[in-house]
Amino acid sequence: MIWESWDAFWAMGGYGLYVWGSYAVVLICIVVEILLARAGQRESVQTARELSEQETAHDATS
Amino acid sequence: MEQLRIRWFQWAAPQSFYPLAGRLWPWFAVLAAVLALAGMYLGFFVAPTDFQQGEGYRIIFAHVPASWMSMVIYLAMAFWALLGFTFNTRLSGMMTQALAPTGAMFTFLSLWTGALWGKPMWGTWWVWDARLTSELILFFLYMGYIALTSAIDDPRRADRAGGLVALVGAVNVPIIYFSVKWWNTLHQGASVSVTKGSSMAQTMLWAMLLMALAFWAYSIAMALYRVRSIILQRERHSRWVQELVA
Questions:
Q1: Would an 8 Å CB–CB cutoff place A44 in contact with chain B?
Q2: Within a domain: residue B154?
Q3: Residue B193 phi/psi, 5° resolution?
Q4: What would the pLDDT profile of B49-99 be if each residue is shown by its tens digit?
Q5: CA B133 remoteness from chain centre
Q6: Which residues in chain B (105-144) have CB-CB distances under 8 A to chain A?
Q7: What count of CB pairs under 8 Å joins A to B?
Q8: Which end of chain A is less packed: N or C, by CB atoms within 10 Å?
Q9: How many domains are there within chain B?
Q10: Inter-chain CB proximity B242 and A33 less than 8 Å
Q11: B221, part of any domain
Q12: Is the confidence metric ipTM above 0.85 for this complex?
C-alpha cells in the first residue's frame, strides 16, 4: 500500500477534487451510456413485437 | 479465396451479424471490466507519486485512454463509412451509427478530464490552443454526425450523408494527434510514442495501457450491443425479425 491512510488516499495530495471529479464523471457517463443502450434495445424489441402482433391480427381478420 | 470472400459477406448480412454480435458483446464487456479493475488497481495503489505533479497526474489513467479512443472510434467510423461507399453493404452504416455515441462520450470525457487536469497544473480550465481546439472540433463532428443521421428518416440516405461527415471529418484526427508537434501548445507532447518509446515510469505506463485496453474492449462491447438495436429497428419488417420477437 502506497497510501498512509484512506484519508490520504481520498485527499490525493490536495488534488482530490480534480482526480475524483474526473473519475466520477467517467463512471457516470459509462453507467448512463449502458442504461441508454439497454433502453434502446428494449425499445427496438418492443417496436418489432408490436408490428408482428399487428400483422398477426391483420392476417387473422383477412 | 472466393469462399473466404463469400463468408465475409455472409457475416456482413444483418441477419447473421445479429446473433454473432449477441454472442460476442458479453465477452468484451467482461474483458473491459477485468482490464479496468487491473488498470485502476495499478494506477492508484502501485504507481508511484509523480515528482512534478504529485498525485494530480493520476487523471492520466482516464484522460489519455479516453483521448485515444475519441480518435480511434472516429477513424473506425470513417473505415466503416468507406466500406459502405465501396461495397454498399447495409451493415457498414449501422456500425458507423453504433460507434458514434461511444466516440462522442469519450471525446467529452477527454475534454472534461483535461479541464480538471489543466486547472491545477496550468492554472486554467481551458485555452484555445491547437490540441484542445481540435479535440473540441472532434466533439462537434460527432454531434454533427449524430444530429444529421437522426434527422434523416430514410436509413440508407442517413448512412450516406453521415458517412460523408465521418470520412471528411477524419482529416481532423491527424491534426489532433500532431497538433502538439506542429504548433506551440500549452498541452504537453506525447509521453508514449511509437518511435521513441515511453518517458514514463513502468507501472504508470502499464496502468495507462491497461486502461486503454479496457476502453477498447468497452467500446467494442457497446458498438456490438448498439448495432443489434439498430439492426432490429431497421429490419423490423423482415421475416427473421418477426420470427425472432414472436
A1: yes
A2: yes
A3: -135, 145
A4: 988 888 999 999 999 999 999 999 999 999 999 999 999 888 999 999 999
A5: 18
A6: 105, 108-109, 112-113, 116-117, 119-120
A7: 98
A8: C
A9: 1
A10: no
A11: yes
A12: yes
Answer yes or no: are the C-beta atoms of B160 and B106 closer than 8 Å: no
Q: Touching check for A43 and chain B: CB below 8 Å?
A: yes
Whole-angstrom Cα distance, residue B99 to residue B90?
A: 15
Cβ-Cβ contacts under 8 Å for B21 (sequence gap 6 or more): B224, B225, B227, B228
Coil, helix or strand for B1?
A: coil
Domain annotation covers residue B144: yes
How close does chain A come to B191, measured CA to CA in Å? 19
- For the stretch B97-106, pLDDT in tens is 999 999 999 9
Mutation target to probe the B interface, by most B beta carbons within 10 A, among A1, A2, A18, A38 is A18
In a domain, B200, yes or no: yes
Q: What are the phi and psi torsion angles at B152 (to 5°)?
A: -100, 125
What is the DSSP track for B20-73?
HHHHHHHHHHHHHHHHHHHHHHIIIIISPPBTTTBTGGGGHHHHHHHHHHHHHH
Q: C-alpha grid cell for residue B159?
A: 448512412
Please give the grid coordinates belonging to residue B152: 434523416
Collapsed DSSP state (helix, strand, coil) of residue B190: coil
The Cα B46–Cα A16 span in angstroms is 18
Range of the domain at B135: 25-245
Domain limits of chain A?
A: 15-61
- Helix pair angle (B90-122, B130-151), 10° resolution: 150
Residues of B in contact with A18 (CB under 8 A): 56, 59, 116-117, 119-120
The predicted model scores a pTM of: 0.92
